[in-house]
Amino acid sequence: MKKNILTFALLLIVGSVAAQKNQKIAFIDMDYILQNIPQYIEAQNALNDKVAKWRANLDKEARAIELLKTDLGNEKAILTPELIEEREEDILVKQQAFRKLESLYFGTNGDMYILRKKLIQPIQDQVYNAVQTIAARKKYDFVFDKSSELIMLYSNKKHDISSLVLKLINIDQKQQAKRDKIAAKKELLSNNELSEAAKQRQAKKEALKQKKLSDREKKLQEIKDKREAKLKAREEKRRLLREKKEALKKAKEAAKKKEDEDKKNQESNDQ
């Protein structure tokens, strides 16, 4: 409520200043502009797809942790204190890894922030640059964003320069596409003129890059395999311990039963 009052006051002040000094005011609808830029829609969809995959991965890890907690709760009665402590440590490690992964995805400088900056910020910068250009050309003193938190109590359509901004962005994109096409053609011609030795150096550099990527993936797989093997061995140890404990329990029960039977037979013989 306080923010709305301040915004309203700001509009009154700007309107008053504009009236007194005959200043020019315009506004844009940022949402309308962005939704009419195909590259923005593609970038937003790509970002949404990536976020959905990250959330699905986090949900999978969270379910795995909950399953470990449930299993521990169900088996606690038959586990030794050492095994209970060991499994609680495993759960704690997984929880810490989960929080680290969540921060890696959605933290202050996480993957989502980086990807948004890479995909969406350039398009937003295009809009801001177009607004600056139009404002300078038409000598606007103020340009507001209708879709922002600034409440527009009334706006005359003749002051809406959103379509003009879109038109300028489309022109800039066409010019950039033309420049990129020319640059690509020049690069292709340049590559065709490379000496055989230069081509070999390029091929060697690319091969080295691919080898580094392959080695990295191999190392990650080895770490994953070792971890899985360790977990498997630990689970096998727990299984054997449970079987041993169960066998001891059955042996005790059998011995108790035999003892009771011998006692009963002895009593019968005494009678």
Give the beta-strand count.
2
The largest β sheet comes out as: 2 strands, parallel
Task: Work out the helicity level.
Answer: over 70%
Write out the strand line-up for the largest beta sheet, numbering strands in chain order.
1-2
Q: Mean pLDDT across all residues, rounded? A: 80
- Sheet-strand content, in percent, reads under 5%
User: Overall 3D geometry?
Assistant: elongated
Element order: H for helix, E for strand: HEHHHHHEHH
Distance between the termini: 96 Å
Low-confidence stretches: 1-14
- Count of separate DSSP helical elements: 8
Please compute the radius of gyration using only Cα atoms.
35 Å
Secondary structure class reads mainly alpha
Description:
With 271 residues, the protein is an all-alpha fold. 82% of the residues lie in helices and 3% in strands. A two-stranded parallel sheet has the order 1-2. The protein is elongated and about 125 Å long. The termini are far apart. The model is unreliable at 1-14 (pLDDT under 50).
How would you sum up this structure in a few lines?
The protein has helices at residues 2-21, 30-35, 38-75, 81-106, 111-119, 121-138, 162-192, 196-270; strands spanning 25-28, 142-145. It has 271 residues and is mainly α.
Topology:
Layout: H1 2-21, E1 25-28, H2 30-35, H3 38-75, H4 81-106, H5 111-119, H6 121-138, E2 142-145, H7 162-192, H8 196-270
Helix pairs in contact: 3-4, 3-5, 6-7
Descriptive keywords:
271 residues, mainly alpha, two-stranded parallel ribbon, 8 helices
